[in-house]
Each structure stands twice: as C-alpha cells, then as structure tokens.
Amino acid sequence: MKIQKFFSALMLIGAVAFASCEPIPDDPDGPGPGGKDTTSVVTGDTLTVAQAIAKQDNSTAFVKGYIVGWYSNHNNDKKVIFSADATADTTVIATNIVIADAVAETDQAKCVCVQLPAGALRSALNLLDHPENFHAATVLKGELTTYNTMAGLKNISEASLNGNPISTEIDVNSAIVATCAEAADAASKLAPGASSTEYYKVSGTVGSVATSAANLVSYGNINFTLQDETGAIGCYYINYLNNEKFTSEDQILNPGDKVTVVSQLKNYEKNGTTTPELANGFLLSIEKGEVVIEVTTLSFADVYDLGSKLAAGVTTMEQYRTTGIISQVNTAADKLVGYGNCNFIITDPTGACTSTITCYYTNWLDNKPFTSVEDIPVAGDTVTVVGPLMNYNGTTVEFYKGYIETIKRGANTGENPGENPGSDVNLPEGTRDTINFAGNCFNLDDEVTIMQTATYTLGDYTFLFDGRANTSSGTKIMTDMFRMYKGTSLTITSTHNIKAIYFDTTASAAQKYGADLLTCNVGSIAVDAKYDGLWSAPADANTTSVVFGNTGQVRINQLIIIY
Fold first, then answer.
1. Are strands 518-520 and 554-562 parallel, antiparallel or unpaired?
2. Which run of H or E residues covers position 139?
3. Using CA atoms in the order 34, 40, 45, 46, what is the torsion angle rounded to 10 degrees?
4. pLDDT band for position 21 (50/70/90)?
5. Which pick of 129, 216, 236, 369 has the fewest CB atoms within 10 Å?
6. In terms of pTM, does the model score above 0.70?
7. To the nearest whole percent, how much of the chain has pLDDT over 90?
8. By C-alpha distance, which of 310, 559, 299 is closest to 439?
9. Is the pLDDT confidence value at 48 over 80?
C-alpha cells in the first residue's frame, strides 16, 4: 500500500474557477433551498429541548426553544458560543444555531444544535446575518439526530421565529434580473461569507462544469460557471428544474448549454479571499447547446506564461496542450478510483521554465475517469496534458479539469522527495508509504492549532500531536504542511515495524525550519544539506512507534515511511 495525500489565449470573458474539488453540500448534510411553501402554522406534539435531547432516535419532530448561541469547531474547540458575537479567532458560523428551553441557558448539555440547510431557513435563522435572533423564540421541524457532537436537529424543513412562520417558497417573479457582471458586483459587496436575502435571475451560457455525471445524482446539485457578454460568475449547489434534485446522469449540464439560474448571491470567503457567486439556487430553464473546443499546443514555458497573465480565479474556455515531467503526485492511490481524477505537479522537460504547473482534477486517458489504482501516475513519468488553464488565486498556474493525453513511464530523476529524496539521501530497501501533507491529508476544514493533544489516523499509521509543553504557538496543522513549534512532540505509531522515516521539510534564507531541529526517542536522525532528515530505527531492531521532539520550529511537508 502506498499512501499519498496531496494536493488548472487569453480570453475576453473567463469562467470563474471553482474552489472545491467536487460539488458538496454547503455543510456536510445541507440540501439546497426548498421550493415548496412550508408556511403552515406549526401544530402537533411539539417537544421541549429537554425532550429532544432524550429522544435522539432519527425520528422527525417539532422542537421549540430559544436561540441561545451557535456551535464553534474552529481550532477543534467543539463548544457552544452563548452569544451572537464572533470569537477571538473566527466569525459566527451561519450553518447552525443552538437552542435551549431557558432563554439565558449557558450549559451546553442542556442544548440542541440545529443544522441550518442552505436556503431560506438558514438565511432567516442564522446569527451571522441576524444577530437580532439571539434569544428569539423558535419552533423547528427536523430529524432528531446527533449533530456537531451534541444532541441535534438536522434537515429542518419548517420553522417559525417569534411566532411567525418562515416561508421557504421562492417567488421567481420577484427575483432581481441581472447580468453575470451585475450579479458578481452585487455579491462582492456583501460581507465576507454572507448571502443575500434576495434571489437573482441570471441567464447565460454554461462554461466549465465542476460536477461529474457520476456525482450529480449523489449530490443532487451541480457546480458550474455561467457567462454572458458582460462577464462570468460561479454557480454552486444549483438544483435542477422546479428546484428539484438532479436524479439522472443524463441531466448533466455541458459547456455551451444556455440556462437561466434563480439563486441567492453569496460572497464566498476562504482563507481571507472572497469570491462572488450564485449559490443555493435552481435552474429555471435549460436550452441544450453545443460548443466546439479548440486545443492549442504550446511549450511548457508558453503555457505557464499564458496562465500567469490570467486574472486570479479565472479559467479559460479554450483548452491547451503541453508536456511535462511529474514532480509530485497529490492524490492517494487508494483514493484514485473513488475520485476518478488525480492531482499532480509537472515541470518543464527542457528546463527552460523553472516554474511548475499544477494539474487539478485531471482525468485519465481519453478523458475518462481513473478506474484502477495501477494507473496512478508517479514522479518521473512524462505526461502530455490537455485542458483549460486557470490562475488559482493569482499565484498558481493550473490545468483545471483536464486529462492525460499520453503518458510515458520513467525512472525518477532523484529530484522529487516523494520517490527518491535526493542523491545525498539513501533510503533503505522496503515498502514505502508517502504521506503528503500538502494534500490536506487530515481533511480539515481549516487549519488547527493544537495546544493539548490530537490524534489522526492515516491508513496504517496513527499520528499523536502533543502541544501541551508549548504555551505560545503549539502545533499548527495547515493545508500544505504541519508546523511543530519548540516543545511539542509527534508520536508516529504503525501496524508495521518501521525501518526508517524520511522528513521532507522546508527552509528559508533567513531561518531554517528543517529536520536538523528534530529529536527522537529511539534510533537516529541524519540530516542532509537540504535540511531534510532521515530517521533510522535502532540497528538491532525495528520499531512500531517513535516519538519526535524538536528544539525549534520544524515545518514538515511530506513523510516517506519505509517498512
């Protein structure tokens, strides 16, 4: 087993790039906005919060209570914030509220966490957009099931606020008619992360589609780019006609289709960057079309130059072809078939361009999904890639949702630490598992600072981070690395007898953040000239567990575990 956790002609009108790998609900179980009128007065056997806590049996019920706060999982704190205010390090979360029987309740054990589905109910109830809802009386209909580690109420379909029913009916006739550019401009003026209360009606042509036909039915909604003569805007979590879920792969949209979308606006925010979008809407009309996509062959350097000149977050309608050598694969072999695509990084085979190009959501030969783990590319392979270009966040040139046209398997040159970390490091013989932290291998929604302890399991390995000895920064797990600050420790435990662990770390000109700052409780660490380190088990025996400490900040991008 190999574990690899990893991490797309200029155009007048580009399609807005997608921020997520595949369309997923706005929160783990949140459906799109409902299309039916649920303004009926709530009647029947309505439960108190205490009764709802005792009856977590997945049944559907009405529950009454007061909105007393919201649940925060930022930095893994797992606690209720009993106010409508932001905490020191995060804004109020709009995807949930917490209710209690007493208006001034502050005991988390006496509360129910309510999942707010995307759409009218979330827009009306959440404390981010409506801090005035704090301490308001509410009655909600939903499923009694655990949510956010608490007694919960999920998939709510009806609600009232201070005795007034909340309508989930969307009045298409009152939707604001706008062009793509007008919708994008209005969305950009919303607060970061906020959604509009109004619905907009926008018509245009489908550009790139970020939802596969196979996933369309599973998710029930679609992500795509909408463009017209004024500009482009991303469309997320869009339902089918009549605001129904997609139920057939044949319903998939294709580039060139003409559609009208009715949706709320959202100013999507992640890591301080905002992106205007149409989110949580539905298709009002579809006119199937056909678009002929030209493929232009360019050198690696020309592709990079073209992509770097695109505006941040813009992808081309045109497709390009170039050849490169894979330097890093950012998809685990055991995830390849499930995802059906692969993420990797290529370098210029001629050496003329020193920059790299990322290939994101890349399909296999003939633009087909990957169906076998044996097909996974590896570092050293030479590939010809075809696809549209994107400048992700203005910093990374990507082939976005393209495919591998040809592949030539080749021996690794020794420049990629994923397979051979360098000529000055000799890895022992054995099976290698590569764990790439640049791929957000712990699947975190946000970076985590560990001041206590945290345990993560990856395949045959358990990672125990202990930040209790550090009172300032702890251990920070990020999307591209994890940082061990002085005084913290990492225990790696395996189901195998480990022979060696290679640490691929980073360093800057001003300060080293490498493996030369690592310590270990057994075995030894040899550090090479690049500040990368090789830990070796004791000469007389392998081990299934080793504890690493540090004498300063260590930034680890990747591990290779040999057993």
1. unpaired
2. strand 137-144
3. 70
4. very low
5. 369
6. no
7. 35
8. 559
9. yes
